[in-house]
């Protein structure tokens, strides 16, 4: 009897051990799958930037379909080239002294024609010095002294003018050249030998203060409704992670720095906002009329589900979303403002059928192993999470079909953020929050003026009232 009891205890211990090992194996298998999923992600199937792909050339699997057009310039494309002008600034006459055949001397009376060639070039750059003289009067009536007023901005005995200040700000903020190299550039180009990095910094700060009213005008325009694109990206300020929030449309751009990613522009009201489903946009922006979700993000996620998870429904959904966007673009090209009801109903029916198929697929799968100590909602596979999101936010996913003013993607916001990320790659960080916001304010104006077709360098020499009048 003692031997049977001992064997039963041994068996129970072995069974417990087997259960523990199976649980550990399932946990490690899940962890291994998660790590493999991370390794398989790149810029084409996730939100990772292209710079994270490394030097290995990926297999070309572009989400953009073939257009059927030949490479190069298209028929009807307007080309640009240099053309001779009838009013050149300078004319240099070149004459021959002897005949190229018999070496006989040549005179001006023998010239029968002139061959013209023109060279476009820039003049030798140099600083121009303008002396301002304010006349000092002695009144013939009361003998009091009166001095004429100098123009605005002429405050010192010797100073740099607004055009070279604008050039320095342009190089630093628009072309992202660091202050020391801006000084070197202006010394080499214009002979500004007394310029230092501190001067460039002061000019940038002064420009931001001057443009404060323009930034407020831009924000007011963006708050008037319509379709606005929102996005955010991380950047380093004083060694800490901060967030750059952007609001933009086809005509205006506004940048704002915040220590929190969730500090979204909750003050916006009316209209539609396009974003990438960051939950804070839903939680804190109740004043807007509607949300629209970025289709490009969905296509990248679907590509990852198709390539990594091998789930068949993902390919069908990608094809449907791309086809729906093409139908909308074709309708817009014909001048239509909405899809026919039958076409829209057909897309919606296919959309729901694919979701039903995908959800049924996941319901048949074994549940994921729960990690030790994990709490909260039971974990779901990435494809299952995406399906639930596409189901619960169906109207926002398909907003581009029901409202033709809403684009399929949030590419506008991503384009507006791209140069800001390039600034981080070049200089790495901002020393202070104030400096970061100065940069953001000037870039808000630069991006807006660029969208209006304005000249940035000229704009930086104008008053705020003149800039606003051009927007």
UniProtKB/TrEMBL annotation:
Superkingdom of the source species: Bacteria
Compositionally biased tracts (Low complexity): 41-52
Coiled coil (UniProt feature): none
Region (Disordered), start-end ranges: 35-83
Residues in Transposase IS66 central domain copies: 158-437
Residues of the DUF6444 domain: 13-81
Xref: InterPro entries: DUF6444 (IPR045618), Transposase-related (IPR052344), Transposase_IS66_central (IPR004291)
Pfam families: DDE_Tnp_IS66, DUF6444
Listed NCBIfam families: transpos_IS66 (NF033517)
Listed PANTHER family: BLL1576 PROTEIN
UniProt name for this protein: Putative IS66 family transposase
Originating species: Octadecabacter arcticus 238
Top-level taxonomy: Bacteria, Pseudomonadati, Pseudomonadota, Alphaproteobacteria, Rhodobacterales
């Amino acid at each position: 009897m003692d031997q049977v009891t001992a064997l039963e205890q041994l068996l129970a211990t072995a069974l417990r051990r087997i259960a523990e090992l199976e649980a550990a194996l399932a946990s490690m298998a899940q962890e291994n799958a998660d790590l493999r999923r991370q390794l398989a992600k790149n810029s084409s199937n996730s939100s990772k930037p292209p710079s994270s792909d490394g030097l290995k050339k990926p297999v070309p699997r572009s989400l953009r379909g073939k257009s059927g057009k030949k490479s190069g310039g298209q028929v009807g494309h307007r080309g640009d080239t240099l053309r001779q002008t009838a009013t050149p600034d300078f004319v240099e006459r070149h004459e021959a002294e002897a005949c190229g055949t018999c070496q006989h001397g040549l005179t001006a009376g023998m010239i029968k024609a002139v061959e013209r060639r023109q060279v476009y070039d820039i003049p030798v750059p140099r600083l121009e010095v303008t002396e301002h003289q304010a006349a000092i009067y002695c009144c013939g009536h009361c003998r009091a002294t009166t001095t004429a007023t100098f123009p605005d901005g002429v405050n010192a005995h010797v100073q740099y003018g607004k055009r070279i200040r604008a050039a320095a700000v342009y190089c630093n903020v628009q072309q992202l050249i660091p202050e020391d190299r801006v000084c070197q550039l202006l010394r080499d180009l214009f002979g500004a030998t007394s310029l230092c990095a501190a001067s460039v910094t002061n000019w940038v700060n002064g420009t931001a203060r001057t443009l404060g009213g323009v930034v407020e005008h831009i924000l007011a325009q963006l708050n008037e409704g319509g379709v606005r694109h929102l996005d955010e990206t991380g950047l380093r300020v004083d060694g800490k992670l901060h967030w750059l929030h952007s609001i933009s449309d086809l005509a205006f751009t506004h940048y704002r720095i915040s220590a929190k990613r969730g500090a979204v522009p909750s003050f916006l009201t009316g209209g539609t906002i396009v974003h990438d489903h960051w939950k804070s946009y839903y939680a804190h922006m109740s004043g807007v009329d509607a949300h629209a979700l970025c289709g490009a993000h969905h296509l990248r996620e679907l590509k990852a589900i198709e390539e990594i998870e091998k789930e068949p429904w993902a390919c069908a959904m990608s094809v449907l979303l791309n086809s729906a966007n093409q139908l909308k673009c074709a309708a817009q090209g014909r001048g239509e403002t909405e899809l026919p009801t039958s076409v829209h109903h057909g897309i919606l029916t296919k959309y729901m059928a694919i979701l039903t198929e995908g959800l049924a697929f996941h319901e048949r799968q074994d549940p994921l192993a729960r990690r030790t100590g994990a709490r909260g909602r039971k974990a779901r596979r990435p494809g299952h999470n995406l399906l639930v999101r596409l189901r619960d936010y169906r109207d926002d996913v398909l907003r581009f079909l029901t409202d033709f003013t809403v684009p399929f993607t949030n590419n506008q916001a991503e384009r507006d953020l791209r140069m800001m990320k390039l600034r981080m790659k070049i200089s790495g960080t901002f020393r202070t929050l104030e400096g970061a916001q100065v940069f953001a304010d000037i870039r808000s104006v630069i991006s807006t003026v660029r969208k209006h077709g304005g000249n940035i360098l000229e704009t930086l020499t104008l008053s705020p009232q003149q800039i606003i009048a051009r927007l």
